[in-house]
């Protein structure tokens, strides 16, 4: 009978130890996650200092970061979208007019703005054949965007 009670006491002790280890782990994770510790305004201010690539990477860190970043449309995504608007004003205005959020509008136009900027800045001027264009950087664009690029090329 003593052996049984000793085993039961050992299993209880190990259960308590495991539970306390799990609790400490959760507490440490929570302490390391500033999103859960700081007021939302401070967290948003920190995230607002990130560029778009860093912001997207941060959203992949954990579910709490993703939630804050994804759901802060006008505070985090609007400034990023307005930067892209400098290159693609028609596209941004059309998407916003269609009811897309700032984040979705940015997603829809970010790569296009990069390619359009390269074209408009003359990076692809004097291309002799389609094989000289970098395939990975190209992005599908509508006729109006190609018209803007053509006008810029003709002015050069």
Automatic annotation (TrEMBL):
Pathway the protein contributes to: Protein modification; protein ubiquitination
Domain F-box: 32-80
GO cellular component, one term: cytoplasm
Keyword flag Cell wall biogenesis/degradation: no
The protein, known as: F-box only protein
Pfam families given in the database record: F-box-like
The protein's role, per its UniProt record: Substrate recognition component of a SCF (SKP1-CUL1-F-box protein) E3 ubiquitin-protein ligase complex which mediates the ubiquitination and subsequent proteasomal degradation of target proteins and plays a role in several biological processes such as cell cycle, cell proliferation, or maintenance of chromosome stability. Ubiquitinates mTORC1-bound TTI1 and TELO2 when they are phosphorylated by CK2 following growth factor deprivation, leading to their degradation. In contrast, does not mediate ubiquitination of TTI1 and TELO2 when they are part of the mTORC2 complex.
Key word Coiled coil present: no
Main localization category: cytoplasm
Localization terms from the record: Cytoplasm
Subunit-structure text: Part of the SCF (SKP1-CUL1-F-box) E3 ubiquitin-protein ligase complex SCF(FBXO9) composed of CUL1, SKP1, RBX1 and FBXO9. Interacts with TTI1 and TELO2; when TTI1 and TELO2 are phosphorylated by CK2.
InterPro entries membership: F-box-like_dom_sf, F-box_dom
GO BP annotations listed: protein ubiquitination; SCF-dependent proteasomal ubiquitin-dependent protein catabolic process
Highest taxon of source: Eukaryota
